[in-house]
Amino acid sequence: MAVALRQSCAVASVPTSRRVAVVVRASAGQINPSIRKSEEKVADIIKVANVPKPKAVFCRCWRADASKFPYCDGSHVKHNKETGDNVGPLVIDSTP
Amino acid sequence: MAVALRQSCAVASVPTSRRVAVVVRASAGQINPSIRKSEEKVADIIKVANVPKPKAVFCRCWRADASKFPYCDGSHVKHNKETGDNVGPLVIDSTP
Ligand code: FES
Ligand code: FES
């Protein structure tokens, strides 16, 4: 998600030798860092009959392991802890 | 999503008068900018009987209008266009 952005200080009056570069990790604003990036849009269509029972937990944080997505593997916990975010899964509950 | 981060250049050898502040809009890495931020974790549990038919389209971009979330309102299109991202919804298909 994040790209390294080399941001130079705009200090024209300071000699070149004194210029510094501030390296900032700046997000390009993408929320999917790595899942199926070769696809133009990652949409998943699941027949209701194929939805795991009794509860299907679907990832909305785009941090689940690629082998688990579109299902949640708990990775949102680490993401939330690291960033202060509050994202979580969608649960489809097939119990009566 | 983004927070204004005041990043000073670390140029101890440059007189104070020449120091500059670089103001960077740096993402804190959060992927949910505004939805139900008072909740510690936004999880949605939907009974399968209440899943809209014939197709329920669920938001995974956290950009849907708050009045529509957890359903997709197409806002992922703008997000993808602006950032080069490739996120899209989860569709639960109740057709036979
Ligand atoms: S791993 Fe993504 S929502 Fe749980
Ligand atoms: S509006 Fe969020 S996935 Fe469509």
Automatic annotation (TrEMBL), chains A, B:
<dbReference type="GO" id="GO:0046872">
    <property type="term" value="F:metal ion binding"/>
</dbReference>
<dbReference type="GO" id="GO:0010506">
    <property type="term" value="P:regulation of autophagy"/>
</dbReference>
<protein>
    <recommendedName>
        <fullName>Iron-binding zinc finger CDGSH type domain-containing protein</fullName>
    </recommendedName>
</protein>
<dbReference type="GO" id="GO:0005741">
    <property type="term" value="C:mitochondrial outer membrane"/>
</dbReference>
<keyword id="KW-0479">Metal-binding</keyword>
<feature type="domain" description="Iron-binding zinc finger CDGSH type">
    <location>
        <begin position="41"/>
        <end position="82"/>
    </location>
</feature>
<dbReference type="GO" id="GO:0051537">
    <property type="term" value="F:2 iron, 2 sulfur cluster binding"/>
</dbReference>
<dbReference type="InterPro" id="IPR018967">
    <property type="entry name" value="FeS-contain_CDGSH-typ"/>
</dbReference>
<dbReference type="InterPro" id="IPR042216">
    <property type="entry name" value="MitoNEET_CISD"/>
</dbReference>
<dbReference type="InterPro" id="IPR045131">
    <property type="entry name" value="CISD1/2"/>
</dbReference>
<keyword id="KW-0411">Iron-sulfur</keyword>
<keyword id="KW-0408">Iron</keyword>
<keyword id="KW-0001">2Fe-2S</keyword>
